[in-house]
Amino acid sequence: xxxxxxxxxxxxxxxxxxxxxxxxxxxxxxxxxxxxxxxxxxxxxxxxxxxxxxxxxxxxxxxxxxxxxxxxxxxxxxxxxxxxxxxxxxxxxxxxxxxxxxxxxxxxxxxxxxxxxxxxxxxxxxxxxxxxxxxxxxxxxxxxxxxxxxxxxxxxxxxxxxxxxxxxxxxxxxxxxxxxxxxxxxxxxxxxxxxxxxxxxxxxxxxxxxx
Length: 211
Description:
This protein has 5 helices and 11 strands, in the order βββαββαββααββαββ. By secondary structure, the chain is α+β, with helices and mostly antiparallel strands. The strands form 4 sheets. A 4-stranded mixed beta sheet has the order 5-6-11-10, covered by helices on one side. The longest helix has 18 residues, at 116-133. The chain starts with a strand and ends in a 7-residue tail after the last strand.
């Protein structure tokens, strides 16, 4: 993967047009031309730059790529926090479960129009993914809490309602995002917020090497 140069050169004092045409609309805006004299310009180089998708940035870092994750908001304010209900995964913490039953339910509810290869992969890998990112509600014996939700069933629709939805009360997305961001802080990756560009980026050096 080739190197990707950081976009901080956008802060240079280059002259930009004061008028932009897009179809039938005209946008007027002002330009600050002395900005480079006030703010130092620093170039950064990475193997990969990810826009959003914090977990994707983790994956690249774990594969030993020097990675940056860029977002317009502070990471813990991303839209993931709005997810409330939960995520289905055949963990079997409340009763016996099997990813094949989850696969069957997902294909059925898609009216057999879903990509079955993709559904196969997602339902088979969901338990591992949930153990990684779910830091929320637990049962009395410390397992991830799961509740009945939607049309999830056991034994290919013949075993009754499945308790398959992993959740953290009504703030599942909030918990997942904070768990992931806490992992960034734990590994002491560097981060930078720029009010000027309204951009936040977090760098993921290949620090997992040897773990």
